[in-house]
Amino acid sequence: MQQLLNTIRQCEVCVKNLPRGPRPIIEASVDSKILLVSQAPGRVVHESGIAWTDQSGKKLREWLGVDENTFFNTSNFAILPMGFCYPGKGKTGDLPPRKECAPLWHEQVFSELQNIKLIILIGSYASSYYLPEEKTNLTQKAADFEEHLPKYWVVPHPSPVNRFWRAKNPWFEESVVPQLQQKIADILK
What we know:
189 residues, four-stranded parallel β-sheet
């Protein structure tokens, strides 16, 4: 696993398309129990080199019901973005994740993760990629989370940009998040 992570962290496949250069962000161990498949690192994470060290990460840890020590312990959580590097800024947020990463690396990472009990698909890019047969939108996938269990759990991206989505869909934090927190607690016992 460590050799694969080192190889991914040296990847420069799309270097010409990255405004701040490559800095692949990935965390995992063979002991990881929960896999977080997310979008792509933002600028703050790109600069720090540590996944989810931004406001989105703070909200995600709140949703999962875990503290930083639990979250950043790779025996608990593996972090596998759809795009490993910061893609740059778009008109209303960051650009979409680069399309090269998931087909190039995900299967290899999955083959090393033998102890995963749950895969949390964070946002529309991850849920569309891993649930391609499902034609519903992210809101419906998040509402119908039980249909994807026991393998997947779909959540919206916890970015501050999505505050309007959360305001329109209070049911998510009121009823889904407590169930997610219980599932996480059960897995991490």
